[in-house]
């Protein structure tokens, strides 16, 4: 009975479950008879296990075929869209609010610092070399572009095809009100003082286009037309309490400067290059040496290029003249221009002239523009007719390569890339704005110079110029810069003989020095060394070459040399082409040396020994063709002089002078003695001793400056006594003996002076006075040396006393323990 009750209980529960399932899921009610029918069919008619796998296999086959057809359709759809994208000249506009949102997120901490650093360098360089007449100098004190990024593609972006070149078009609108660019202006005459100029608002609006080139290694950017430019400028007082009013013409000058820069660099068809380097070497290029070879030209004709106004006035007759007559007498040359540096080829005849002329050019930044001007050389005409122009732009890429690009046919683009320095790049560049003609050039970037002082090889961490204000613009770094003017080549002759007497003038900061003049030479050799105190802030070395003339020196050419990134211990060999000249190159050796410690306040541990031996080939200062030379020496505030050697151009002095070493500049001035009139200068020079090793003598001939010829023979020694050796008593005794000897000589000269004064012998009296002054200077030198040795001896005694005291203290401590 118990089992029967238990079974009945389970059946009732099962019935309750089925009833509830029928209420909740009515479809379950149908499944029960379906399963019963299937079970009966399986049991008494046909076994389902025999054909179910077959049905499943057929179904899977159909599903796989459908999936493959769907994948094939998607692939064909992608290919069709790509084909349409590549074949259609213009794609539909695509709105990209996401891009501007992304710019707003990454602008403050990534894009803004990079762009500000780059733009600040450009602005600092521009305002330094291009400024209004009322401003003597600009200094950049602060540079910030604000927190508002530009808006790109507000009305959408689209792609277009020009030939095989893809171009992306997008609108550009940059309106920022919280930027801060502060310039400190030092005003020129008649407005003295300083004033601050703050640019606090910038609005640039235009249509931008981007061209990916070199398989995506770079992008060329440009505006389709001249963009709208607006600047907000505020003026403030400077240190000299100049009223904070608007300076005349400064606002319009800044707007014009920015607009002109955009037009010349990134308004169609001119483009700016943005390299996309896969490898970042972290180098900052500050200059380069470029070899430009003008190989030839093709398809040049007078009716295809623009010529002189007179030729354009009669252009209607050109169509009536045959091509042979147009080019029969055509003779052309090309002028190559990089900034202020220009060189020209020889004139060649024909429509396809060959020049094959190579020029050495200099870049002063990590980018540059090489312009080629085509001129017609007409016999008998002083002025040449300008026919056409083309240009090639150059830029350093962060992976060490160099990118060259130019305007191609139909305002297209020609791009080339040199993976490393020394690799030649050949380009055929069409002349701009003409119907025919192209120029064939070959460019070789010889080397890039970096901010850390390294060249193309030997990569190290770079440095950037200071962006401090005017107070630090001429601050010294504590290093010395030694510039050796070695030689010059191919200088342009100025006189009728085709030769000149050239010399070089160097200016660094406010210091100006010059070489001697080399007579009758277009390839002069100087080998003169000049010393400058290094100035912070990327100050340029200015070089000017003159030829000397009786009626006024005439300029041959000039150049600027970037001294940024000089490293100690390495000499930079710089060939400097002369700007504003048809030819000429000056070779410089530049070295930076750390100043010796204590050089400003004196080493306190030695003296300078100068031996003036002789001179040769001096300038004749007297009418009789000779001179009465003597040397005036200046070392800091001390002044000495040698004796006078009469009636000679090759004097011999053999006199020794000593000065306490305080790091001052040692200057020599050779003068011609005159008993009645004032002494005239016949040359001067500076004796370098700062880099001499201690107690080693340098024997050298120094060319005299300010005169056409003349050299002086000196021996210079930087005496540094060895303190671990006791000073020699014999040395002090010998010095005292010499001092007493000189005193006796001075007494005898005084007696001689009395007798000469009684005899009224003016010439002998002057000579004796000169000898007396020389003896007095020599005695003063010996006394100075005695005082120096006395101080050294006292210092050594003091050190020995301290050592004895310390040793006795140590012994007492040991005894107590």
UniProtKB/TrEMBL annotation:
Any one biological process term the GO annotation gives: lipid transport
- Transmembrane intervals: 21-38
The C2 domain, residue ranges: 461-578, 582-702
Q: What is its main location?
A: membrane
Specify the superkingdom. Answer: Eukaryota
Coiled-coil intervals: 758-803
Where is the protein situated, by its record's location annotation? Answer: Membrane
Q: Which Gene3D superfamilies match?
A: C2 domain
Domain SMP-LTD residue range list: 92-277
Which InterPro entries does the record cross-reference, listed alphabetically? C2_dom (IPR000008), C2_domain_sf (IPR035892), SMP_LBD (IPR031468)
Q: Which SUPFAM superfamilies match?
A: C2 domain (Calcium/lipid-binding domain, CaLB)
Assigned GO CC terms: membrane
Which molecular function GO terms apply here? lipid binding
Q: Which UniProt keywords apply?
A: Coiled coil, Lipid transport, Lipid-binding, Membrane, Transmembrane, Transmembrane helix, Transport
Record Pfam families: C2
Q: Which PANTHER family match?
A: OS01G0128800 PROTEIN, SYNAPTOTAGMIN-5 ISOFORM X1
The name under which this protein is listed is: C2 domain-containing protein
Species the sequence originates in = Opuntia streptacantha
């Amino acid at each position: 009975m118990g089992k029967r009750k238990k079974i009945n209980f389970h059946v009732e529960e099962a019935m309750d479950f089925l009833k509830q399932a029928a209420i909740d899921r009515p479809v379950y009610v149908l499944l029960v008879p379906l399963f019963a029918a299937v079970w009966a069919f399986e049991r008494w008619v046909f076994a389902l296990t025999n054909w179910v796998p077959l049905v499943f296999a057929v179904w899977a086959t159909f599903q796989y075929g459908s999936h493959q057809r769907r994948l094939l359709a998607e692939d064909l759809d992608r290919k069709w869209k790509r084909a349409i994208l590549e074949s259609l000249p213009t794609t539909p506009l695509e709105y990209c609010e996401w891009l501007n949102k992304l710019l707003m997120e990454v602008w403050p901490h990534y894009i803004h610092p990079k762009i500000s650093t780059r733009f600040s360098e450009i602005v600092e360089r521009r305002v330094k070399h291009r400024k209004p007449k009322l401003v003597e100098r600009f200094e950049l004190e602060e540079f910030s572009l604000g927190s508002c990024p530009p808006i790109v593609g507000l009305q959408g972006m689209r792609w277009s095809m020009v030939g095989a070149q893809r171009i992306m078009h997008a609108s550009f609108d940059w309106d920022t009100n919280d930027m801060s660019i502060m310039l400190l202006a030092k005003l020129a005459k008649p407005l003295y003082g300083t004033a601050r100029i703050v640019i606090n608002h910038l609005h640039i609006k235009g249509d931008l286009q981007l061209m990916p080139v070199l398989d995506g290694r770079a992008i060329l950017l440009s505006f389709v037309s001249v963009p709208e430019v607006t600047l907000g400028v505020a003026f403030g007082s400077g240190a000299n309490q100049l009223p904070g009013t608007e300076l005349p013409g400064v606002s319009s000058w800044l707007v014009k400067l920015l607009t002109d820069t955009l037009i010349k660099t990134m308004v169609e068809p001119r483009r700016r290059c943005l390299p996309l380097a896969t490898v970042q070497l972290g180098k900052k290029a500050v200059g380069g040496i470029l070899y430009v070879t003008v190989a030839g030209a093709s398809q040049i004709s007078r009716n295809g290029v623009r010529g002189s106004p007179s030729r354009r006035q009669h252009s209607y007759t050109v169509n009536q003249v045959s091509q042979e007559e147009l080019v029969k007498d055509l003779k052309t040359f090309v002028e190559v221009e990089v900034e202020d540096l220009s060189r020209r080829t020889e004139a060649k005849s024909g429509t396809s002239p060959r020049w094959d002329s190579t020029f050495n050019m200099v870049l002063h930044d990590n980018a540059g523009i090489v312009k080629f001007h085509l001129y017609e050389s007409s016999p008998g005409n002083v002025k040449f007719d300008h026919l056409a122009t083309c240009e090639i732009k150059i830029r350093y890429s962060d992976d060490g390569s160099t990118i060259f690009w130019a305007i191609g046919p139909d305002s297209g683009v020609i791009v080339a890339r040199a993976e490393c320095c020394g690799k030649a790049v050949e380009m055929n560049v069409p002349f701009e704005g003409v119907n025919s003609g192209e120029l064939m050039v070959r460019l070789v970037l010889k080397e890039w110079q970096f901010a850390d002082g390294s060249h193309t090889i030997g990569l190290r961490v770079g440095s950037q110029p200071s962006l401090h204000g005017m107070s630090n613009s001429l601050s010294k770094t504590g290093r010395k810069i030694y510039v050796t003017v070695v030689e010059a080549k191919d200088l342009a002759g100025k006189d009728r003989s085709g030769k000149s007497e050239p010399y070089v003038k160097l200016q660094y900061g406010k210091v100006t020095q010059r070489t001697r003049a080399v007579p009758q030479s277009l390839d002069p050799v100087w080998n003169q060394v000049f010393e400058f105190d290094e100035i912070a802030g990327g100050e340029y070395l200015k070089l000017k070459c003159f030829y000397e003339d009786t009626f006024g020196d005439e300029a041959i050419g000039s150049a600027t040399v970037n001294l940024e990134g000089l490293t100690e211990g390495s000499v930079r060999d710089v060939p400097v082409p002369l700007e504003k000249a048809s030819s000429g190159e000056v070779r410089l050796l530049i070295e930076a040396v750390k100043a010796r410690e204590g050089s400003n306040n004196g080493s306190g541990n030695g003296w300078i020994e100068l031996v003036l031996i002789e001179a040769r080939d001096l300038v004749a200062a007297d009418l009789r063709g000779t001179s009465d030379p003597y040397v005036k020496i200046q070392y800091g505030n001390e002044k000495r002089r040698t004796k006078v050697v009469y009636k000679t151009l090759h004097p011999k002095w053999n006199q020794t002078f000593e000065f306490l070493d305080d790091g001052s500049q040692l200057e020599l001035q050779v003068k011609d003695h005159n008993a009645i009139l004032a002494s005239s200068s016949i040359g001067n020079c500076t004796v370098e001793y700062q880099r001499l090793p201690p107690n080693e003598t340098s024997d050298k001939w120094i060319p005299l400056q300010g005169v056409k010829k003349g050299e002086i023979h000196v021996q210079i020694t930087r005496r540094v006594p060895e303190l671990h050796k006791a000073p020699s008593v014999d040395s002090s005794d010998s010095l005292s003996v010499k001092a007493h000897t000189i005193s006796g000589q001075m007494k005898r000269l005084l007696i001689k002076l009395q007798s000469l004064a009684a005899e009224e012998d003016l010439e002998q009296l002057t000579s004796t006075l000169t000898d007396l002054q020389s003896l007095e200077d020599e005695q003063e030198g010996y006394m100075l040396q005695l005082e120096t040795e006395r101080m050294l001896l006292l210092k050594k005694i003091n050190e020995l006393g301290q050592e004895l005291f310390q040793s006795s203290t140590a012994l007492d401590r040991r005894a107590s323990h």
